Amino acid sequence: MPSEMITIKSPDGDFPAYRAAPEGGGPGPALVVIQEIFGINLVMRDICDDLAGQGYVAICPDLFWRLEPGVELTDKTKAEWDKAFDLMSRFDPDTGVKDIAETIAVARRDKQSTGKAGAIGYCLGGLLAYLTACRTDAEACVGYYGVNIPKFLDEAKNISGHLMLHVAGKDQFVDAKAQKAMHDGLDDNPHVTLHDYPEQDHAFARVGGEHFDARAADLANTRTRAFLQTHLG
């Protein structure tokens, strides 16, 4: 898929983003791909490329730019994990959502965009996908194994688009109490759909990751594709 690094201009400064678009220049809905704690790494770029192959304009912004621009880590070494957790501990979700909102605005204006826009995020990005649904006008958002969502459940009433969350039943970072809180706070919301994967751990859809499960990942991704097709076209 045609891909490039672009620059997103915001009131707080400029930051880079990875952009992948459908071949042939045809129009498609836009999706902001929200990073894990590892930055715009190969996993995120591959997700963008895959979405572009499905007909989306996929843009993954560098959300750590205020802390350290250009972070690109893997999940293969302790040193990288330590750095990723340090970045997450210093990251401000509120400014992250502002950067996502700026990226959505750019995505809507993209020369190949239909004007419809959504977001899809993983881990830290799963939380940010939830907050994007609460705080922006994105038509559709998807979060995979989002962390710390219960802290923000009071914002769910603000969701005007559609939200799908994939919940790992044995998530080492989201315990059973937090999962119950998510269901209690969201199950009755007509804008929200939760899917549980009872036997899966965090990052079960991260290709090449320690907890990757091909069957569960395929099920979640199939649900995501149908959801996005329904709400973004």
Automatic annotation (TrEMBL):
Its EC number is 3.1.-.-. It holds the Pfam family DLH. SUPFAM superfamilies: alpha/beta-Hydrolases. InterPro entries: AB_hydrolase_fold (IPR029058), Dienelactn_hydro (IPR002925), Dienelactone_hydrolase-like (IPR051049). The keyword Amino-acid biosynthesis does not apply. GO terms for molecular function: hydrolase activity. Residues 15-231 form the Dienelactone hydrolase domain. Keywords: Hydrolase. The keyword Hydrolase applies. Residues 1-21 are annotated as: Disordered. This is Dienelactone hydrolase family protein. It comes from Hyphobacterium marinum.
